[in-house]
Predict the structure.
Amino acid sequence: MEITPWTPQDGTRTACEALDQVLTGTLQGTVRREVSGVPAGGVARAWGDPAVVLRCGVPQPAEYRPDSQLAVVDGVDWLPVQGDGGYFFVTVGRVAYVEVAVPSTYAPEAGVLTALGGPIRRTIPPAG
């Protein structure tokens, strides 16, 4: 599956590679899929069909503002952004932004976010 390209943000490579090392082959009962189009220094994974897609080191989302409503799931702050056919969730307050695209098929999305919360907490430290 082709991943939407992005330019990995400076200073995120080590944390994103650490996250990649702990991500499992399954997520919420779905199996990991092969991905292509991942930029040098970037980390991306996908599970299931339709795919839940994780990209690490993405830029800060344009929708994020100081007064944004965040969802806190399993100790991780997420900015939810409604997209076509589902939601994008982006971690906030960590050294790397991690974006997870969750198709509406997987609603309620909290299960996916809970499954990813532990690996993110262990490998993507809080920002400054």
Summary: The beta strands are 26-27, 30-33, 43-47, 52-58, 71-73, 76-83, 86-91, 97-103. The chain has a mean pLDDT of 95.
